[in-house]
Design goal:
5-stranded mixed beta sheet, 356 residues, 2 domains
Length: 356
């Protein structure tokens, strides 16, 4: 068995050098910014803009300005081997997550598009950006001492250049994100239906929950009512069996009863609807959101992919914001809204018409 080795060396007030078996990384953090850059070229940075509720991340492109939150793994998508007890715990955590999707949001509430429009640039065009400044400081403070001895001959220069290049890319992305933010704000303040839909497109709204949603499209019913068509595949997503431990500590798979399975399905479907409603109300100044949720499945006789509407619900903003979605069974909250649904505890969802 090999030894694991990891050491953190403080290089300054805000920087640390992390040394491990996989290589080196530099982590830098101060108010509003945190970044980690490794010598293997892996970089991740989060830069927040005070007062806006927005943040930029290296893992997102310039159009995905609003940092996604609460995104969890898909069930069964774990490749690493785990001890039985840990595997059961992981499974239970995943089940809890997909049945509480409505507890989370992907965009902050109370967004002030006017403030975003007037937000000052993170740095002036032509000047050195904050990431590059940090990289320059780290390199300057540590040459030609410890880092130079740590890297192989000639390696320090190459690594320093790589660090500066990555930092410059992060600054370019930061500035591009700020520019795009102002464009989005302009569209939102234009108070135009086409502008609102363009903002959803620019933000990549349809991809926020792409782990759970196959397709989503939006249109306007009238000036302040948005309509969404959402397709999901419940059967291919939810597991038919659950993991548990035997008295001797071994992993065991047990099949859900139909009541248990469809209870999870009802929480998942309604949770998706609430999550979308919450995101849309946070982003757009609409009074109502009409959501039609379709279940896609392959016809066992024809082999053709078909879909049927299993939920149609009209969320009005006033009622939606007054409900504490974290309390009670999510499916029961549908009673607070005008909706169409046919659900049998032992058979699941039936096809329904659109809410009129």
């Amino acid at each position: 068995m090999g030894f694991n080795f990891r050491k953190r060396i403080r290089l300054g007030k805000y920087a640390n050098l992390n040394i491990g078996k996989s290589g080196l990384s530099l982590s830098v953090g101060r108010k509003g910014m945190r970044q980690s850059i490794s010598t293997k070229g892996v970089a991740r940075t989060t830069f927040s803009l005070p007062g806006t509720g927005l943040s930029y991340s290296k893992s997102l492109n310039a159009k995905k300005l609003l940092k996604g939150r609460g995104m969890g793994p898909i069930l069964g998508n774990r490749e690493e081997e785990q001890e039985p007890e840990k595997e059961v715990q992981t499974f239970q955590e995943d089940i809890k997550f997909i049945t509480t999707l409505h507890h989370y949001e992907d965009y902050p509430s109370g967004i002030s598009w006017e403030e975003i429009k007037n937000e000052e640039a993170p740095f002036k065009r032509g000047e050195v950006g904050p990431h590059t400044k940090e990289a320059q400081r780290i390199i300057e403070e540590n040459k030609p001492g410890f880092l130079k001895r740590l890297f192989a001959s000639g390696g320090f220069k190459a690594s320093a250049e790589k660090l500066l290049h990555e930092a410059k890319e992060l600054d370019d992305e930061l500035f591009a994100a700020w520019t795009n933010n102002k464009v989005l704000a302009e569209k939102m303040l234009h108070h135009d239906e086409k502008a609102y839909l363009a903002v959803l497109e620019d933000l990549g709204f349809s991809k926020v929950l792409e782990e759970y949603i196959k397709e989503v499209a939006f249109s306007y019913v009238d000036g302040d009512s948005l309509k969404g068509e959402v397709s999901i595949e419940v059967a291919s997503f939810l597991p038919e069996s659950y993991k548990t431990l035997t008295p001797t500590g071994r992993l065991s798979m047990k099949k859900y009863t139909k009541t248990e399975y469809y209870d999870i399905a009802s929480m998942f479907v309604s949770g998706i609807a609430y999550r979308l409603g919450k995101n849309l109300f946070h982003l757009l100044p609409v009074a109502d959101v009409l959501l039609n949720v379709y279940q896609r499945a392959v016809n066992t006789h024809s082999g053709v992919l078909e879909q049927k509407r299993i939920l149609s619900v009209l969320f009005d903003r006033q009622t939606f914001e007054a409900i504490d979605l974290a309390k009670g069974h999510p499916f029961d909250h549908l009673q607070s809204f005008k909706h169409e649904v046919k659900f049998v505890k032992t058979r699941g969802f039936g096809e329904v018409p659109e809410v009129q």
